[in-house]
Design brief:
single chain; mainly alpha; 7 helices
Length: 189
């Protein structure tokens, strides 16, 4: 019975992580630029974006403190970075959804019949990374957490596949196929 509860605890941690990821995705999608904001000429911030920020054109400075030379920032890079981040976030959400579905529909009934190891620590770490991500703003720290979540999710799937190798081949076939498909979809990101 303890082994079944470890799988359920693992799924619960992943479900909390999934809920957090979905909220993050929803928040990030609400901040998506409108066509008016994106329609500025390359290298220029649109008037709407300037008004929302309450500032003039974005500039960066190059050189030392005494030799600062204003240089226009390319808002296209920021927009592309946001699009890339949203894409990775969406894929992590999709992979987590698929993983939880496989665990609930295939692995849970299998786990009740057979004993195979579950690595609860990885699911806890995944949940914690997602919760930490929720506290981050867009930027390098958020991107690092998103990458860590991606890697942790990959580790969880690989360890589940490895755990299934300890049970008879005829019983594990469907589970391994389903998990390998989730892993393949995840790695195709």
């Amino acid at each position: 019975m303890a082994s079944t509860t470890s799988l359920q605890a693992s799924v619960n941690h992943q479900t909390v992580a999934l809920q957090t990821l979905r909220l993050l995705q929803e928040q990030r999608d609400q901040g998506q630029p409108t066509p008016q904001q994106v329609s500025a000429a390359p290298g220029q911030v649109s008037l709407t974006e300037q008004q929302e920020k309450g500032e003039g054109p974005a500039v960066a400075t190059l050189g030392g403190e005494g030799n600062a030379v204003p240089q226009p920032r390319d808002p296209g890079q920021c927009t592309l970075a946001r699009v890339a981040m949203r894409t990775v976030l969406a894929r992590v959400v999709e992979t987590t959804t698929q993983l939880v579905q496989v665990e609930q529909t295939i692995l849970n009934p299998l786990r009740q019949e057979l004993n195979f190891p579950i690595y609860l620590k990885d699911s806890i770490e995944f949940r914690n990374i997602c919760c930490h991500m929720a506290q981050q703003r867009e930027g390098q720290a958020f991107d690092q957490d998103l990458n860590a979540a991606y890697q942790c999710l990959k580790t969880i799937i690989k360890k589940l596949i490895h755990s299934l190798l300890s049970i008879p081949a005829d019983v594990r076939a469907l589970s391994c196929i389903a998990l390998r498909q989730v892993l393949q979809n995840h790695l195709a990101l």
